[in-house]
Please model this.
Amino acid sequence: MERERPAEDDQVERLFAGLVSHGLIVPVDVHGIFGRGAVFEDVLRRVDEMIVRQSAEPAESLTFPPVIDRSVIQRTDYLDSFPQLAGLIYGFLGDHRDAHQLSGRVHRGEPWGELMSLTDVCLNPAACYPLYPTMTGVLPLAGRLVTMLNWVYRREPSPEPTRMQAFRVREFVRAGSPAMVLEWREAWIRRGLDLLRRLGLPAQTEVASDPFFGRVGAVLAEGQRAQQLKFEVVVPVVSDDHPTALCSFNYHQDHFGHAFDIHQDDGSVAHTACLGFGLERVVIALFRHHGFDPDSWPAEVRAEIWC
Amino acid sequence: MERERPAEDDQVERLFAGLVSHGLIVPVDVHGIFGRGAVFEDVLRRVDEMIVRQSAEPAESLTFPPVIDRSVIQRTDYLDSFPQLAGLIYGFLGDHRDAHQLSGRVHRGEPWGELMSLTDVCLNPAACYPLYPTMTGVLPLAGRLVTMLNWVYRREPSPEPTRMQAFRVREFVRAGSPAMVLEWREAWIRRGLDLLRRLGLPAQTEVASDPFFGRVGAVLAEGQRAQQLKFEVVVPVVSDDHPTALCSFNYHQDHFGHAFDIHQDDGSVAHTACLGFGLERVVIALFRHHGFDPDSWPAEVRAEIWC
Model:
């Protein structure tokens, strides 16, 4: 990853310190897992409701825990593409003697990681992942539209407050024919851009790629860009040169349809697309652009959020 | 753990099947991590708001991610007391060659758990744990009262829908002198019992203990009961003989005060108590006692929730 320049480091520190001193977040000794205060949460909840109101069609609503079936990331080749971001869950499966050994090692400050075993659950790497296995089978003729607000995990600890290990994503998933899915994504790219601009944020659309691992990953990322499979709406938060993605719009083609046997009525493999708003990122962008006190935000922005 | 009797197994299966067939939950191939539908979530959110309204005093409000600083469970000896319930997070720290090896093993179905490394984060084992390290220092004279709604993890997969691996807890924490903390807990035990009875649930208070690990743990549990450190409000859900705890009230004495250097103004170590409502458990108890369609629930119960 590219080294941030000192000017960005200053901006990162000022932003984090401002969020803390105004009680908006509560620092924790590990990067990317800070606590959120009441005002932060109020803005987040209202921004989320505002996003949900933009959906032109009614969507089914589901909520999944932050922990999912580990087989989901294996069936989708997540550990090939993003091993560096995964969070696997290990548990203690031992007996009394093993527990005694574990306790001794922990208290003596000795390594104890090998006393734990891989379990059949992992952290959810993207809000939409737990949905696809529940779609196995034949879709209705009009396809499906589902919305979710889930906690997501990415192992990328950073002092930059918008780069978190754990955060919430408001996600929509559209499943159906390629035409249904692409038309839906196009409409939402415009809506997402419009929504963030109404919040007074200098938002722009970009063709983007996922952070695929390694040299093979660089080739995959190039292919993703060339096919315009991923768009982001970005806003400068800690750097004008490297704006932050607040929402992304991904066309998966038949990747999940194949992995989970999701079909259309005519027997063809279903296509899917998703869009996700990083809710903490939108909230932090608002504090960055409008100040740390929501009472002093521009009236037109307040009217959008506290409507 | 005691073997459930066949009658309870039947009850467990009927309850799970009813929740699924009414779209209240969405089954997942691993036990204890099912998805939640829109009606389930609506009831959960309203029950949560009802609980928060019971607090006699205004509480500070914080939200923590499902993932916390691993040092918190080490400083509180959680791995001594409950190793079997912990969820540690492991990540991939390797290079290109290691990634290639990982991918090969995953695709060939060979063991790959040892290719991952213990990280400095773990799943949150109880809603209040991430709060205590943020309290280090001297408390205000009147102590502190904080409320949180956090996702919690326990490694105890079960087909019983109220025994989940991942669930939400509405928690309150009181920190201060022993007298402040005990008086607060007493008032809340009455409030918790009253609240669940107003929801039409046959609730009872019990002295309880935590599921400490092993033979030493059995002694710890006995001591906890003898000192009445833990109370629960229980309601029959899948068994009349073994009712389910919907909320618990725990007096920690100076356990967390010592672990995180939390002091009172006079220099003495602060005492703490917490209470937590298992939100999914309350919701499932409501469906079990009043039926799977909230429109047909008793009018007085509906009036409490949709007020």
Remarks:
- The CA atoms of residues 201 and 289 of chain B lie 7 Å apart.
